Amino acid sequence: MLIGLVGKPSVGKSTFFKACTLADVAIASYPFTTIKPNRGIAYVKIDCIDKEFGVQCMPRTGYCKNGKRFVPFELMDVAGLVEGASKGKGLGNQFLDDLSGANAFIHIVDISGETDANGKETKGHNPIQDVQMLENELDLWYLGILKKVWKSFARTLQNTKQDLAKSVANQFSGLRVLEEHVKKTLMKLKYDTEKPSLWSDEQLFAFAHELRHLSKPMLIAANKCDKFSSKENLNNLKNAYPEIMIIPCSADSELALREASKAGLIDYTPDEPDFKMKEGLNEKQKNALSMIKKNVLDVYGSTGIQKVLNTAVFDLLKYIAVFPAGAHKLADSKGNILPDCFLVPDGSTALDFAFIVHTDLGKNFIRAVNARTKQVIGKDYRLRHRDGIEIIT
After folding, report:
1. Is 77:37 a contact under the CB 8 Å cutoff?
2. Residue 191 in 3-state DSSP?
3. C-alpha to C-alpha distance for 366 and 351, rounded to whole angstroms
4. Rounded to whole angstroms, how far apart are CA atoms 117 and 99?
5. Is the separation of the CB atoms in 380 and 366 below 8 Å?
6. b/e string for 197-206 if b means 16 or more Cβ within 10 A?
7. How many CB atoms lie within 10 A of CB 136?
8. What one-character DSSP code corresponds to residue 320?
């Protein structure tokens, strides 16, 4: 799974990325600090199942803290997109191509309104304009890809009587467009699927828009939520885009807390409303941390960063977390207890899970066992969030 961070320059994408991954990336207050995409590992946070079994887990990937399991996935930060990006402005074509393999987008918006359309410092900018710009550029990106081949492609489909949904999905598989995405789009728009070559430019744009929303779902991370105009702008943005999930956050605060925790200055678990200061902090450090507590945690309940990640994976993409777990033995062959946890699409079966864990497990699947109930389950058993499953081969 790959989730891409998008947005105009200087809205805090790289800060958000570093706060999630603690990767060493360039952060600056001027546009196009990021040119090449940064990739790193971020984590969703779930309740670990180890306490239910009276054990302490030993993660091979990710980590567990205070009973909270952090399960890894890949996050990508690309350079800021400006108006005209779909036509190559600001190296837009390169940056959009970098996003082609993403499963979903997190749109980082400067909700304070303190950066203009090009990412330069200002006052009173309307963040709604940033969302309008990015939505339009992403639609034009999809439209441009469709238009390059559409006329000849559509005529071929008509002449050969090929299935439209399957053919479009095959043609644009590089964008992670699935057949079900195309079918849902066609069902909503009610276009003439027998003669796609006759679709107007307006129809093709609407098709690209719907297909992009389904194949690249997006939520908004309303960053810099602790600034003066942020609350008013946040309310206005939610009213303007009621169909999009919008979550207030402060990437600067989360980065400061995670780095302080890594340095041993505080005890902090992401997405918690508080932290514990340790001995040895100077007054400047105490004051800075107290301001984060007062202006962000006490107001919003958390910095919002972990909530954004969890919402993107579990609500936007509708994935669930499943543990490979023996019904009578929770450790692997090396003695590691509950070493793994996998993110899988909701609706996955026990057989699907076997293939996800290892191809050989899927090929030699006989049955599975629910670690909690000790009951035998078949290959068609639909997995549930936080299931512990043993695969029998």
Report:
1. yes
2. coil
3. 9
4. 21
5. no
6. eebeeeebbb
7. 14
8. E
Do the Cβ atoms of 76 and 5 come closer than 8 Å? Answer: yes
Query: What is the distance between the alpha carbons of residues 33 and 15, in angstroms, rounded to a whole number?
Result: 11
Q: Angle at which helices 13-21 and 251-262 pack, to 10 degrees?
A: 30
- pTM equals 0.91
Instruction: Round to whole Å and give the CA distance between 313 and 74.
Output: 11
- Write the DSSP symbol of residue 223: E
Q: What is the token pair recorded at 240?
A: 């303007």
The 10s digit of each residue's pLDDT in 23-38 is 654 444 544 454 578 8
* Rounded Cα–Cα distance for residues 253 and 298 (Å): 12
Q: Report CA torsion sign: 324, 330, 332, 337.
A: positive
**CB 19 within 8 Å of CB 258:** yes
The amino acid occupying position 282 is: N
- Dihedral angle at the C-alpha atoms of 140, 144, 147, 149, nearest 10 degrees? -150
Q: Report residues of the chain scoring pLDDT below 70.
A: 23-35, 88-95
CA 173 to chain centre: 19
Quick count: other Cβ atoms within 10 Å of Cβ 360?
Answer: 11
**Domains, the chain:** 2-37+78-125+217-312 (3.40.50.300), 137-215 (1.10.8.470), 319-392 (3.10.20.30)
**106 near 11, Cβ under 8 Å?**
no
Q: Tokens for 387?
A: 């299931």
Which residue matches tokens 């954004």? 308
Question: What token pair was written down for 76?
Answer: 């990508």
Instruction: Give dist(CA 300, CA 283) in Å, integer.
Output: 25
Q: Residue 374 and residue 392: Cα distance in Å, rounded?
A: 13
- Please answer whether residues 258 and 47 qualify as being in contact, where contact means their C-beta atoms are separated by less than 8 angstroms: no
